[in-house]
Amino acid sequence: MNFEEILQISPYSLEKEEKEKILTDRLMELTEHHRKNCLEYARILESISYHKGNVKKCSDFPFLPVRLFKELSLKSVLPEEVVKTMTSSGTSGQAVSKIYLDRTTSSNQQKTMVKIVSDFTGSSRMPMIIVDCPSVVKNRTMFSARGAGILGFSIFGSRKIYALDDDMKLDVKGLMEFLEKYKDQRILLFGFTFMVWQHFYKELFRLRKEGIAFDLSNGVLIHGGGWKKLISEAVSQEEFHTRLKEVCGLNYIHDYYGMVEQTGCISMQCEYGHLHASIFSDIIIRKPEDFSECGIGERGIIQVLSTIPESYPGHSLLTEDEGALLGEDDCPCGRKGKYFKVMGRLKNAEIRGCSDTYAEKFK
Amino acid sequence: MQKSGGAVILMQKNSNSRKEQDILDSMEYFVGDAEIIRNMAVTPTRIPFDDEIVNFLNDVSRTLLGMREARAYPDVVTLAFWMRKASVLNLKKRFEKKDGDMHLGRGMVFHIAPSNVPMNYAYSLVSGLLTGNMNVVRLPSKDFDQVRIINRAIEESLSRFKHVKNYICLVRYERKREINDFLSAMSEVRMIWGGDRTIAELRKSPLMPRAGEIAFADRYSLAIIDSDVYLELDDKQKVAEGFYNDTYLMDQNACTSPYIVVWLGSRKEEAKKIFWEKLHRIVREKYSFQPIMGINKLTSSYLTAAAYPNVKIEDCQDNYLVRVKIPEIVDGLMNWKDHSGYFLEYDCGEILELRTLCNDTHCQTIGFLGERETLFPLLESGIKGVDRVVPIGKTMDFDLIWDGYDLTERLTRTIHLDFS
C-alpha cells in the first residue's frame, strides 16, 4: 500500500493486526528505498547484517538514534530536490538536527497532520490564535521546530493572529478585537507548552488582577514541545489544565507528542489524557539495557515509526525520551491503536574520567 | 613629591595585600590554611626522597590501612600500598641520581586535579612531596568519599609530623580566574590534570619566567592481545578482571583506558569469544549502567559504520558491551571513540599496520598481552606516540614516569657541582 492509499484510511480506525500489516509493508518499502538512496544508511544496515527476510513485524526494523541527524546530513534525495530543511530547536552552541524535505515528503507531512488533528477539532477551519511571535516563521527555507509547528498548524486557521509580539509581550488590544470579532465561533489556539505557560497564562493571570479578563471558553488549545521547562517550575499537566481553565475558561486542551525528525506524525492527547499513535505512525517502548520491547506499563525508551519520510531515512527512530505504553485498541475515547504517556528526556550520563567534562560531546 | 610617591606605593601594597587576602579567603581549605600558602615563598625545599617525607608518607599509608572506611575502597588501598616505605624506597632506588650533583625540589607546585575522578590529586600530591616541593592542590569539584578519607589520614599524620605541615595545602574553589592567576604566579611548577579544556583555561594565567608546567592533555590508549598467547593462559578470568579495571572502572574514559582492541596471532575468533564472554559476565555483575549509555553507544557505532564501508557491529546481546569491528586502521579513527563500554576492534596481520594509530602524539598507553618481541618493530619505527607499554590490567597503575614525563626530573632542579 502506498502512502496515498494509507491516507484514505481514518487515522484511528485500524485494529492491531490490520495496522501491523499495513505499517510493516510501508516501512519495508521505505527501508529499501533509503538503503538504495542514502549511502550512510546503507552502510549502517550492512554493519548490522540487516536482511529484509528477517523482518516479520514493525518491531524488527532497525532504528536510528535521533542524534544521528545532528551529526550527519542524511538524505535520500538529490540536493536539488530538497525544498525545505528543518532544524530542531537547540540553544546556542548545541548541534541541531537537520532534516531534509523534498516536495513529496513535505506535502505528505501536511496531509497527515490535517487527518490527525481534524479527528480532534473537526475538519472545518477556525479562527486561530498562535501563542508565539511572528518572527519565528520569518525564514521560510530554514525552519526551526517551533516555526515548523506553527506553519504546520496554521492550515487549521481561517483567520490568524499572533498573540505575542517579537518582544514576547502579549498583544492585549489585538486579542481583544479578535475575540470580539469571532465571539460566537470555535477558536483554535496553538503554541509550545512553555510559551503558553510563560507568556500567555502568566500574563492573563496578571491582567485578570487588573480587571482585564479574556473569555476563551469556545477555544481548543493544542500545545506541544515537552514539559521539561515546566517541570523546573513544578507545573504538572493537571495544574496546567485547571489553571488555564480558571484564568480564561479554556475547556479543551490537547497536548501532543512530536518531533521535527518526524513532522506530521504527531501523537495527540485524547480527552482521557492519553497520547495516541495514529495509523500513520507507531511507537514501541524499549528497555535501555538491551533495546528489547517493554510490556504495557513498563517504562522505557520511546522508538517512533512513521510512514511518511521518503527524503531522509527517518521512518524508524530511537528517541531520547522515556515513556510507557498504556494500552492498545482499548482507550475509553474509542480510538484504536497504541496509547501511551511520555515521562521526559533521559538524563545525560554521569561519567568518570581524567578529562574534565565541560560539555557533553553531542549536546 | 617623593614622599607622596612613597605613600602611593605603600597604599598600592596595602591594597595588593588586601586583594591577596580576599583571594586566599575565597578558597575552601581541607588541609592547611592561607598562612601556609603565604609561607611557601620562604619554606625551604627538600631533597628528593627526604627521610622525613618518606616517613610521613609511610605514616599516612599506615593510617589509611588502619581505617575501616578506607579498606572499602580498592583504589585507596592501592594508593596506601604505593606510598608505604618499602615501595617508596624502590622508587628511590630507581630515580635517585648518583651523579655528584645536588638535586632539590623546585619550590611551590600548583596541582590542578581533574574534577570527576577521586584519586589523581593524591598521586599528584605524593609526587610533589617525594621530589621535595611545597604543594597547593586544587581538589576535585565533586565530593568523593575517597578524597575525604585520604584527607583525614593526611591530617592525622600531620599532627605527628609538624614539620611537614608547611608542604601541604589542599583547597577547593570554583573555577575562578583570579585564584588561578594568584596561585600560578607564585608557583615554580604547575601540574595540570583534566585534559585539553582545563589546560587551555589555566594557560590564561601566566607563570613566572623560569617556572615549568606539566600538562596532562587528552590522550587515547589501546589494547593489543596476541590470541595464541591468550589462549595458552591458565587464568583467563584474571585477564578479564584486569581489563575491566582498565576500562569500565573509569567508564572507559580515563586517558589510559583502551578504546580499541587489536588482535594478533592465528586464533583470533576463538580468543575473542572467550575474552569478551568473560568480560561481559563481569560487566553485568559490577557495572552500573545508565539508560542513556545504550543510545550513546548505538549512536557512536552507527556513526562509525556510516563513515567507512565494511564496518561490522558485533551482536553482544545487550548494551553493556558494544563492539565495532573495523576493516582497516585509517586516519581520524579516534574521532569515533566512545566510553562506558564501547570498543573498536581490529584484526591485525602485521604489527606495522598499527603505525598510523601510534604515530600520533595523542596515543598514550598500550595495554599488552603477548610476546615482547612482537611489539618492537612498531616501537622502533619512529612513532610520535606511545608513552608506555604495560600489561592488561595495569594501565591505570601510577608511576613517577607518567604520560611520557619523568616527574622526578620535571619537579626537581639540579645544582651542578664542579670544585675542580
Structure at a glance:
Chain A is of the alpha/beta class and 363 residues long.
Can you walk me through this structure?
The complex is a heterodimer of chains A (363) and B (420). By secondary structure, chain A is of the alpha/beta class. Chain A has two domains: 1-64 and 270-347, Luciferase, domain 3; 102-257, Rossmann fold (3-Layer(aba) Sandwich). Chain A is 31% helix and 23% strand. Chain A has helices at 3-7, 16-37, 39-47, 68-71, 103-121, 145-154, 172-181, 193-209, 228-231, 237-248, and strands at 64-65, 84-87, 98-101, 126-131, 142-144, 157-162, 187-192, 219-224, 252-257, 267-269, 275-276, 281-286, 299-306, 316-328, 338-345. In chain A, the strands form two sheets. In chain A, strands 1, 4, 6, 7, 8, 9, 10, 11, 12, 13, 14 and 15 form a twelve-stranded mixed sheet that branches. In chain A, strand 7 (187-192), helix 8 and strand 8 (219-224) form a beta-alpha-beta unit. In chain A, helix 8 (193-209) runs parallel beside helix 10. Chain A is globular and about 65 Å long. The two termini of chain A are 39 Å apart. In chain A, 43% of the residues are buried. Chain B is α/β, with parallel strands linked by helices and 420 residues long. Chain B folds into two domains: 14-218, 3-Layer(aba) Sandwich (Aldehyde Dehydrogenase, Chain A, domain 1), CATH 3.40.605; 220-399, Aldehyde Dehydrogenase, Chain A, domain 2, CATH 3.40.309.10. Chain B has helices at 2-25, 34-39, 51-66, 68-71, 74-82, 85-95, 120-130, 145-158, 177-186, 195-203, 227-232, 236-246, 268-286, 291-307, 355-358, 372-379, 407-410; strands at residues 28-31, 102-105, 108-112, 134-138, 168-172, 189-192, 212-215, 220-226, 258-264, 312-313, 322-325, 342-347, 363-369, 388-391, 401-402, 405-406, 412-415. Chain B has a seven-stranded mixed sheet. In chain B, strands 1-5-4-3-6-7 form a six-stranded mixed sheet, with helices on both faces. In chain B, strands 2-17 form a two-stranded antiparallel sheet. In chain B, helix 3 packs antiparallel against helix 5 and helix 12 crosses helix 13. The termini of chain B are far apart. In chain B, 44% of the residues are buried. The mean pLDDT of chain B is 94. Classes of the chains: A alpha/beta (363), B alpha/beta (420). The A-B interface holds A 40-41, 43-44, 46-49, 64-65, 67-68, 71-72, 288-291, 301, 318, 320, 322, 346-358, 362 and B 114-117, 120, 193-198, 216, 218, 250-251, 253-255, 257, 289-296, 298-299, 301-306, 308-313, 317-320, 324, 339-340.
